[in-house]
Amino acid sequence: MLEYILAKYNYWIYVVLMMIGLYAMMGKRNLVKKLIGMNIFQTSIILFFVSMGVKKGGATVPILMGDSHGHGEQLIQVADYLNPLPHVLMLTAIVVSIATTGVALATLILIYKRYHTLEEDEILAIRKEASAYKTLGT
Amino acid sequence: MTDQLPALIIIAPLLGAFLTPVIGWRYRHLCRPWALMMLAVPVYASIGSLLRVISSGPFGYNLGGWAPPWGIEYRIDHLSALMLVLIAVIGLLATINAKPDVATEMRGKEPYFYTLLLLQITGLMGIVITGDLFNIFVFLEICSLSGYGLIAHGEDGAPMATFNYIIIGTIGASFYLLGVGYLYMATGSLNIADLATILPDLYHSKMILVGFAFFTTGVAIKMGLFPLHFWMPDAYTTAPNSVSTLIAPLMTKVAAYLLIRIMFTLFQPNFTISIVPVATILGWLAVVAIIVGGIKALAQTDIKRMVTYIMVAEVGYIVMGISVMNRAGLTGAILHIVNDACMIFCLFLVIGAISYKGHGREIYHFQNLNKKMPYTMAAFVIVALSMCGIPPACGFFSKWYLIMGTIAAKQWVFAITLLGSSLVNAVLFFRIIEKAYLAPPGGGTHGHDHEEEVIARDEAPASMLIPIIITAAAILILGPLSGKIIETVIQHAVPAIF
After folding, report:
1. Looking at chain A from residue 69 to 88, which residues have their Cβ under 8 Å from any Cβ of chain B?
2. pLDDT of amino acid A55
3. How far apart are the first and last CA of chain B?
4. Helix, strand, coil percent content, chain B, rounded in steps of 5
């Protein structure tokens, strides 16, 4: 059992990280903690994709070498090279995750300016009070 | 020139979005004409693409000249061409409609508003046009991110609703990305057409099944399918009117398109029929969505929030049409994507015009509104008739096909739910129409005993009224035309196995 886990430990880490992220997004009441959970969640997916491209047994970066004269095609063994595509995809995903974090942080600033707190319970209480006041007024 | 049409559809609004802040730096008043110009190009290009698809069948466009399995391919078939025309036209009309709203609510922020608007439309069209799974993820995030930015500008609760939307939307997009990952691990390809040929041999692999599950869940979140709809009413109610007008009708429909793509193009229909019971699950979720959406809509007095709950039910309609797995059902689902986008769009336009004129959104504010805003209210009545399924309007025809589909599949509960939902819609809309047209002037509460009050006409400005009239006319015209639309476009979009 232990060997089974150790053989693919990076995938297990990905699952654990993802669950931590999901828990933080769903379970935590502080908005910044939710945002941190979202980041952990996205990072776990990056780990998953990066693991996908790795090959064991001396595989290296996919830079193809010609002979010293700069030409000449060698036979390429696929097993000698890592798969670069998942890594490239993750560059895009990292950009996306940074942009999402940026937008979320900007939204948090708006929320803080409006309610002076980032605890979800307190914000809900303030909003409930405000709406009760509004109904009373009309 | 016509060969480059698919690229123009994306490039014009994308480049337009980048140049809008540059133009707005010095000439703020030019932002709007510029945005309209950049949106007119995709309207032209998508109609051109649709005509080409109708005359000579589906075609592809290799971006940068790279051949499909490796390069990114834009793939235009009947379904995506139809969606492109829908998005481009609604995007253009929504931008025309945004003018008075932006001038009052977002003074000084016009360049950024139009930038995000253009990016939003780029994202929506990109999801539809591309034939590459990862590219879909990128476009999904482009339109989600610009959507977050736009929604956060709204009324009091908007930032909080936006934050919840960011969290749940990111989960949805990440699940989609995980699905892409599992499929890539199993096949080594990202191109949808390529995957569709590789996948049938691997249908029993657990990796594919997990990938499919992630896809469906991710798309269901983006679509707002019950029970993953909870972000939708808050986000679309608190968003600025000009923004919910654009995002609300299109985002859910594009996600529904994505679900059809995944279930019937990426995977063969027999996978979804025989190997995973996803159709059954989706069908019953749709039933609950229609019932819950209807009940929650009945409970609302704020009409904008009411419409968002109607949307929950309408998503249920589309998913139900997909889930019955026969020709009539899927035809109805695709037709309903088009019709419902027009109806929801028109409803939000009407709400926007009413709010702009300073009237409240509660139902009692509608009293005698037909005298003040006759054209707007006439459009509202047309949408209401369409929503209830009264024949000349387009809503009847898609519901007809949906009900035929459920009967052909012998799903009686589904058929009864659809019929019952029309009744609920009738109640929902006629209580507003009654208030607007039939309530006595003054309401009898202010002590005006027998005096007839003269209510001055106070109609919305032309830039709001024109989109309303066009959309209302489209709802009436699309109905009688639906046979033609099915014959030329939709019947080719339904998989041949049905």
Report:
1. 85-86
2. 79
3. 37
4. 80, 5, 15
pLDDT mean over B326-331: 89
pLDDT tens per residue across span A72-108: 556 667 777 888 888 889 999 999 999 999 999 999 9
Topology of the domain covering A2-57+76-137: Helix Hairpins (1.10.287)
> What's the one-letter identity of residue B470?
I
Rounded to whole angstroms, what are the CA distances from B301 to B102, B178, B296, B353? 26, 40, 10, 18
| Predicted pLDDT of residue B447 | 46
| Residues belonging to chain B | 498
Residue numbers in A near B174 (CB within 8 A): 41-42, 45
pLDDT at B444 over 70: no
Give A135's pLDDT tier (boundaries 50, 70, 90): low
From the number of C-beta atoms within 10 Å of its C-beta (0-12, 13-18, 19+), residue B221 rates as: buried
What DSSP string describes B117-152? Answer: HHHHHHHHHHHHHB-BHHHHHHHHHHHHHHHHHHHT
Q: Greater confidence, A111 or B439?
A: A111
Q: Does A92 touch chain B (CB under 8 A)?
A: yes
> Does B459 have pLDDT greater than 70?
yes
Q: Specify the residue for token string 């002037």.
A: B441
pTM, two decimals, is 0.91
Nearest Cα to Cα of residue B179 among B206, B203, B215: B215
- For the stretch B103-132, pLDDT in tens is 887 777 888 899 999 999 999 999 999 989
pLDDT tens-place string over residues B399-412:
999 999 999 888 88
A38: chain B residues, CB-CB within 8 Å:
166-167, 170
Tokens representing B451 are 């005096």
pLDDT in tens, A28-69: 899 999 999 999 999 999 999 988 888 777 777 777 766 555
The Cα-based distances of B385 to B185, B393, B476 in angstroms read 50, 7, 10
The alpha carbons of chain A give a radius of gyration, in whole angstroms, of: 24
Contact partners, residue B183, CB within 8 Å, separation at least 6: B133, B195, B199, B207, B208, B211
Is A95 in CB contact (< 8 Å) with chain B?
Answer: no
Q: Which two tokens stand for residue B58?
A: 């589906």
Which two structure tokens, joined as six digits, stand for A137? 């007024």
Domain layout of chain A by residue ranges: 2-57+76-137
For B400, residues 6+ apart whose C-beta sits below 8 A from its C-beta are: B332, B389
The DSSP-derived string for A90-137 is HHHHHHHHHHHHHHHHHHHHHHHHHHS--BHHHHHHHHHHHHHHHHHH
Average pLDDT, chain B: 87
State yes or no: cis peptide before B227, omega within 30 of 0: yes
Q: How many CB pairs under 8 A join A and B?
A: 71
Gap between the terminal Cα atoms of chain A = 66
Beta bridge partners of A119: A30
Q: Which chain B positions have a beta carbon within 8 Å of A35's beta carbon?
A: 167
Q: Which tens digits make up the pLDDT trace of B225-267?
A: 888 888 888 899 888 888 999 999 999 999 999 999 998 888 8
Across the interface, of B156, B163, B174, the residue whose CB is closest to A42 is B174
